[in-house]
Amino acid sequence: PTRPIIMKGHTRPITQVLYNHDGDLIFSCSKDKVVTCWRSDSGERLGTYEQHRGAVNAIDVDRLTTTVASAASDSYVKLWEAQTGQKKGVFKVESSARAVNFALGDKLLLAAQDKQMGKQPAVFIYTIGKDEVTDGDYNEDGSLRSSFDDEANPMKYTAKLVHEEKSKINIVSAKWCDMNKTIVTAHEDGMVRKWDVETQKILKEVRACETHINSMSFSRDQTMLIAASQADQCGKLIDAKTLKVLKTYKSNRPINAAAISPTYNQVLIGGGIQARDVALVDSRMSHFEVDFWHICYQFYMGSARGHFGPVNSIDIHPNGKSFVSGGEEGEIRLHHMDSVYVKSSNQMEL
Q1: CA-to-CA distance for 281 and 77, rounded, in angstroms?
Q2: Gap between the Cα atoms of 232 and 250, Å rounded
Q3: 38, 95, 334 from 34: Cα distances, Å
Q4: Cβ distance 249 to 298 under 8 Å?
Q5: CA-CA distance, 201 to 207, in Å (whole number)?
Q6: Residue 280 dihedral angles phi and psi, to the nearest 5°
Q7: Mean pLDDT, to the nearest integer, of 45-68?
Q8: What is the predicted pLDDT for the residue at 138?
Q9: Where do the H-state alpha helices sit in 94-251?
């Protein structure tokens, strides 16, 4: 890649970076309680969304980039107008909110919570785009609620998914799948489960990793997903329909994040030694780079260096020609790939 653009706007570790569907904007969130919007070409900061009272753990943006969703440790999931930053919706889960994801069509939203304060890990489903008004859309005085932006009176969930037998295992990621008919969840014990939305029952479950899964993301067409494991030091490519592990990308360090290229046969994985051990080793041995692997043949292709803390999140531009990574040190690095990379990647596709 060319020289990266370093984007500084957060004061604590980055928890997620995300391109919008068109690829012209980047959204990021951090343990500093702030969600930030950036230009994806120049890295210019456009604005922030600030009303959470805890670390923001996850974000998502709808297809038209009109609404941004954020999930935070303050037990709230909030919706924001992407252009103005105004709050337009509030949902309260029962403990720390870990994941959030818009459904296809943007009329449904899911949020996952951690095991805290005596509450079980669970996935909540909210209806955010309604064709009909229901009793829950009215205030106590009988007036129609124009929005659900009041923390004292948040919108209620329409369904709840919880595994009673595995109630102590946290959910690290949750995504809609199969045209909103199912939800795929990744868990701290290395399991990946597929749930039926209508019945709230588990359809399939596999042990994708031996131990802890740190993150999970889909391919652009949602036919594959990739799970990153810090303890197993690898990324696992998984078939989204069967949950069968297809490929393994074995690294020499803990892996926190992984992403599938939307245009090339490549996956990106990143991580590094845990933050508490950074001061104990030489920076050259910390392995804070982002690695490129061939998705089919599983060979290492190269690295992009620069972070001086573990890489916590990676996302790739919809055209595959740039990527963004967020680190434990609070920096976001935007890489625009040069012509040599594009040419060589195109040649490998032949």
Answers
A1: 38
A2: 8
A3: 13, 19, 19
A4: yes
A5: 18
A6: -95, -5
A7: 96
A8: 46
A9: none
Please compute the mean of the pLDDT values over residues 31-59 and round it to a whole number.
97
User: Which residues lie below 8 Å from residue 49, measured CB to CB, with a gap of 6+?
Assistant: 34, 35, 36, 37, 68, 70, 78, 80, 85, 87
- Hey, what are 287's tokens? 């392995």
How far apart, in Å, are the Cα atoms of 306 and each of 30, 187, 250, 289? 19, 30, 21, 7
**Encoded tokens for 90:** 């509030």
Helix (H) or strand (E) holding 123: strand 122-127
Q: At 16, is the secondary structure helix, strand, or coil? A: strand
pLDDT tens per residue across span 1-42: 578 999 999 999 999 999 999 999 999 999 999 999 999 999
Among residues of the chain, what percentage have pLDDT more than 90? Answer: 73
Q: Output 128-134 pairs: Cβ under 8 A, ≥24 positions apart.
A: 128/79, 128/89, 128/155, 129/105
Tell me: pLDDT of 131 over 90.
no
| Number of Cβ within a 10 Å radius of residue 126 | 24
Q: Which alpha helices (H) appear in 199-311, and where do they start and end?
A: none
pTM: 0.91
Residue 68 · residue 49 · CB < 8 Å? yes
Residues 161, 174: Cα–Cα separation, whole Å: 11
Of the pLDDT bands very low, low, confident and very high (cuts 50, 70, 90), residue 350 is low
